[in-house]
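Quick check before the chapter quiz. The format below is the same one you will see on the exam, so make sure you can read both the input and the output lines.
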Amino acid sequence: MSASPVTRQLRAYTPGVLTRHAGLLLAVAGLAIPATTTAKDQPQLYTVIISVRDPSRARIPNAVVRVIPAPSPEPPTMRTDSKGELAVRLKPGGHAVFVSCPGFFSSVQHLEVKDSREPQRFYTILRVGYGGGPVAFDTTPVPHFLLDAQPYHEPWTITRAELATMPRTSIVIRDSSDKRKRTYGGVRMYNLLERAGAPLGKELYGVALQTSIVASGYVPGMKQTVEVVYALAEFDPTSKCGEFILADTVDGHPIDPDEGPFVLISAADKTRKRWVPGLQWMMFHPGLEQPVRPGSE
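Here is the expected output.
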C-alpha cells in the first residue's frame, strides 16, 4: 500500500526538523495531538513570609493561617512557628489572608503578591481579645473547654463533670460514612449560653442580633484545627435553625479522643461542615451599637 501524502512529507524531514514540525503536520492531516505542558506554562510562585504580631509587636506563635487562593504546595501545617512566622509559596496577584489565635481577635487582610525574587514579608497585627490576653492553647485533648462570653459573663472553664450536672438531652444522627445511627448525648447550647448570661429569648434584639460566636476545636485524628462562626441568634429556638447541642457522649460512651471529648453539633447540618469536633474554646464577639443620628432620639 502506498504511503499517504502526510507520511511522505514526514519522511522527507530530518530528525531535528521532524521533532519541530510533526505536531503541525499531524494537525493539518486532522490528527491533532495535545500540546505538552512545559515548565514555562507553569504559574510562577513567589515566597511570602507571613509574620503575626500583637500590638506590642511581640511575636505570636501557633497562630492559624488560611490563604485564599491556597499556597501551592500547601505547607505541612498552616500555623506560625516559634518566631510567629509562616512561609508560603503563592501565585502573583491578590490573596485573602485569615489569621486567628486564642485570646486575640481574628484578622482578615488583603495581600498583593508581587513579582520579586526576594521573599516578601506580610505583617498581621492581632488585637488582644476580651479575655484580656492570650489564652493557653494545647492541642492535647482535655476534659474541659473555655467559654468566653464577655461582656455577659467572665471567662468560664467548663469541665466534663460540670457539664454532667446540667439538664441533658440527646439527638440521633445518621453517620454518612457507614449509614449507622448514633445517639449523641449532651447539653442544649441554648441552655448553656443562657446560663452564661447571653441575651437570648426576650433579650434577643438590637445589639444582641449583631453578636457572633467563634468556636474552635482541634481534631487529633486529622491534626487539624476547626473553626466555625455562628450568629448568637442561631442558638435561640425561635430562630428555627435546628437543634444545637454540646455533646460529650455517643451511644452512651465518652466520645473518642480523636473526635472529642466535646463536639458542638448542628443537627440541621447533614454535611457536618458547621460541627466543631474537639471543642476547646468559644468566644463572643458582641455587636456594637450604632451612633444615634441627630433628630432620631
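If your answer matched, good. The radius of gyration is 28 Å.
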